[in-house]
Amino acid sequence: MTTRRGILAFGLGALVAPLATRAAWAGDWVDLGSRKVKVYGDADRIIVADNGGIYTKLRIGVTGNNVHVERAVVYFGNGENQAYNFDTLVEQGTHSGAIDLPGGGRAILHVDMFYRRRKNGNGAAWVTLQGWAV
User: What's the domain count of the chain?
Assistant: First the structure.
């Protein structure tokens, strides 16, 4: 038998759980997606999961091999988009510099990234898009 108290407790739990998750992300870098990079050039779309996250900065982490990051186009939840020119070599095991997103924080739908792996024979490279959660 369902009681009002049980329904109220369930309803409050359903409301508080997403806030607790978002609070755990606040003030930290969150992985938004990863892709394997081809040698001679690649373009990938990283679709950001509907996690309710609001982000103020983006950066790119690289593992496995060095990657030349050319540019990225960020598509925001409000329908706007913004292109960013990185034009930088990100060495394996490091991150690009952070780019600031416009406004006080934005929801992100997806990011189109353009890059290429440096041809030095060290194997595959992976890029990971990260957002600074507020």
Answer: 1
Domain annotation covers residue 8: no
Q: Domain range holding 93?
A: 28-133
Adjacent-strand bridge partners of 55 = 106, 133
DSSP 17-38: HHHHHHHHHTTSEEEEEEEEE-
Maximum CA extent, the chain: 67
CATH number of the domain where residue 83 is located: 2.60.120
For the stretch 29-79, pLDDT in tens is 999 999 999 877 889 999 997 667 999 999 999 999 999 999 999 999 999
What is the per-residue pLDDT across 79-98, written as a single tens digit (0 to 9) for each? 999 999 999 999 999 999 99
Using DSSP's 3-state secondary structure scheme, residue 11 falls into: helix
Helix (H, G, I), strand (E, B) or coil at 15: helix
Say if 22 falls within a structural domain.
no
